[in-house]
Design a protein that fits this description.
Oligomer: homodimer
Number of strands of chain A: 16
Strand content of chain A: 25-35%
Distance between the termini of chain A: 26 Å
Number of helices of chain A: 8
Helix content of chain A: 25-40%
CATH topology of the largest domain in chain A: D-amino Acid Aminotransferase, Chain A, domain 2
Largest interface: A-B, 53 and 53 residues
Radius of gyration of chain A: 19 Å
Structural class of chain A: alpha+beta
CATH superfamily of the largest domain in chain A: D-amino Acid Aminotransferase, subunit A, domain 2
CATH architecture of the largest domain in chain A: Alpha-Beta Barrel
């Protein structure tokens, strides 16, 4: 069962009009909310970010927090899985004609649940590879919008290279991954790109910083270069569905001789304390 | 009547699955083809550009040129209007699950016709205003993709300022409009941003250059600055639905004291020879 514009229906019955502005223009925003043991994880942070995305593109939230909670919990209850990933998309709505400009419309809202299967510690401990690509995305990467073609092209290239992620480089600095935030440990200090318009301020990113802080790791929200990354001790990526996983190879370069580092193990462990 | 995935149906019956990648990711491309006197105008150029867009995002064209021609002509025939604007959108297709990466899918194809009502010469001759905005779009503006959120935000801002267009500025140079190409006449020479990844190589842009050439205007496909524009003699924008119209005010600055220039009148006239 999925949610579409007020109704709970079968996914294969869920259709939107061709005049939906998400379909025509990528004119919408989305959120992905993890569920552990049937409980929504950091829901407030996700709903806050959703509201920020909506504000940035001037779409009025169709529901208040309690209404969201009720709808999302119902979607959670329809699933047989204890751990889930809730996908929630809001587009500006459907006009009568295709026009770039708009008058006020009723947003179209779609919500679905998928099983959440992050890798086990054993799987994650094997390390993953990434490719690097020039970051040519637009200047408002802080908005979690559905205009995602750049990200699609990057992730498909990563897949073609049997890589877990495409790490994006802007003016020689690592911004983030195509679908993740990126962290570097070097000399015992954790570096990650500061928030702003160049990255999506990941909620999992915040949890990793919270975990690293609890593990007494010094945190610097400073951008680092591709050379810093290649000569660093540990590289990680984070996202709500992957949690935090170590990258041990970037393009053709091994990070830390391809070994997963000790800092990751501690932060991974702490992160799992938070989700349990 | 519209065309959706092989069927001609009423527009209010045209729906796409929520798993359509256009809806989820802006993962699609489009074309807008003008029709004058029931004849498709510069169809080859439009189908060529469509093919380039498809190639850039690795979507396989579902039809060959003759098949497109047959479908589009049928859409033209259903309309009561002699002059039309054909909108054609192709998304990568619908997967079973939302995932950034994809395996081969059947593209979803949507085509509709709208009446083409460019402004009359009298209306156009009154001149229009534009606003300027920093060009923060991605680095592949040559792809006519449906990930258009930046363009949507720009055009809505133009509307809020009662302006015809938002003219975009990157590194102090005019790239193009949010939904048009931009031209400057200064000292009798026509300037416009060269083709490449920073602008969409408009087919109407080519026709304007063709017309200007026929009017013995010197053409330089060089980028010009915002100051060049403000101190220039004439500024025009072009798009397939607006053809070529003069901009006489940019932000709070009058161009040529707010007067429509003589070069525009000649080029406008020649353009209409081409479309008749």
């Amino acid at each position: 069962m999925v949610f579409l514009n007020g109704k709970f229906i079968a996914k294969n019955q869920a259709f939107v009009p061709v005049m939906d502005r998400g379909f025509l223009f990528g004119d919408g925003v989305y959120e992905v909310i993890p569920v552990y043991n049937r409980k929504l994880f950091r829901l407030d942070a996700h709903l806050n970010r959703l509201q920020e995305s909506l504000n940035s593109v001037a779409i009025k939230s169709p529901y208040n927090v309690n209404e969201w909670l009720e709808i999302i919990n119902q979607i959670v209850s329809y699933s047989e899985h204890d751990n889930q990933s809730i996908y929630l998309q809001i587009t500006r709505g459907s006009g009568t004609k295709r026009a770039h400009t708009y008058n006020e419309l009723n947003p179209n809202i779609y919500i679905e649940s998928n099983p959440l299967h992050p890798r086990s510690q054993k799987e994650a401990s094997e390390g993953f590879s990434a490719i690097t690509r020039e970051d040519i995305r637009w200047g408002r990467c802080d908005i979690k919008s559905t205009s995602l073609l750049a990200n699609i092209l990057y992730t498909q290239q990563a897949k073609q290279h049997s890589a877990e992620e495409a790490i994006l480089i802007k003016n020689n600095k690592v911004t983030e991954g195509a679908t993740s935030n990126v962290f570097l440990i070097t000399g015992g200090t954790l570096y990650t790109h500061p928030t702003g318009t160049e990255i999506l301020s990941g909620i999992t990113r915040d949890l990793i910083l919270e975990s690293a802080n609890s593990c007494d790791i010094i945190i610097k929200e400073n951008a680092f270069t591709i050379d810093d990354m290649l000569s660093g001790d540990e590289v990680w990526i984070s996202s709500s569905t992957r949690e935090v996983i170590p990258i041990t190879k970037v393009d053709h370069n091994l990070i830390n001789n391809g070994e997963v580092g000790e800092h990751w193990k501690r932060v991974y462990k702490h992160y799992h304390k938070l989700t349990n």
